[in-house]
């Protein structure tokens, strides 16, 4: 029987990532492929950045990521945000996760370290929530050089 896990999620552009975190030996799988086998080096570094911040805590958990939609960089950023949320036990309702591999004190320390590194890793892209500005340039009103 597999241990109970909570699902943590994140989105970036049109990519959606879902993360399962369990106690384990430090394996990271993205779409059932080991993270070390991802071909794009930049995307691999982005995905593994929250785990590098976690340091030795990485060896205590197994992480499984399901990602779909968008391009490879959108998927990488969605996966990185979802992994950082899973490590810190972030939930939308701000409730305490039921069965998390790390105690509360460890998670708060890790949340502080991740925020110091990059505040967008936990919260996502702030521009997604911003409304369109009134009177801004539309598609037709862009300043273009006139050839008349």
TrEMBL record:
Keyword Glycoprotein among UniProt keywords: no
Q: One biological process GO term for this chain?
A: maturation of SSU-rRNA from tricistronic rRNA transcript (SSU-rRNA, 5.8S rRNA, LSU-rRNA)
Q: Where is the composition biased (Basic residues)?
A: 139-148
Kindly give the InterPro entries that the UniProt entry links to this protein.
Answer: Ribosomal_Su5_D2-typ_SF (IPR020568), Ribosomal_uS9 (IPR000754), Ribosomal_uS9_CS (IPR020574), Ribsml_uS5_D2-typ_fold_subgr (IPR014721)
Keywords (A to Z) from UniProt: Ribonucleoprotein, Ribosomal protein
A GO molecular-function term, please? RNA binding
Biased composition (Basic and acidic residues) is annotated at 93-128
Pfam families under this entry?
A: Ribosomal_S9
Record region (Disordered): 90-148
What is the top-level taxon of the source organism? Archaea
Q: Which GO terms describe its cellular component?
A: cytosolic small ribosomal subunit
Which Gene3D superfamilies does the UniProt entry name for this protein?
A: 3.30.230.10
PANTHER family in UniProt: RIBOSOMAL PROTEIN S16, RIBOSOMAL PROTEIN S9
Q: Which family is this sequence assigned to?
A: Belongs to the universal ribosomal protein uS9 family.
Name recorded for this polypeptide: 30S ribosomal protein S9
UniProt source species = Candidatus Nitrosotenuis cloacae
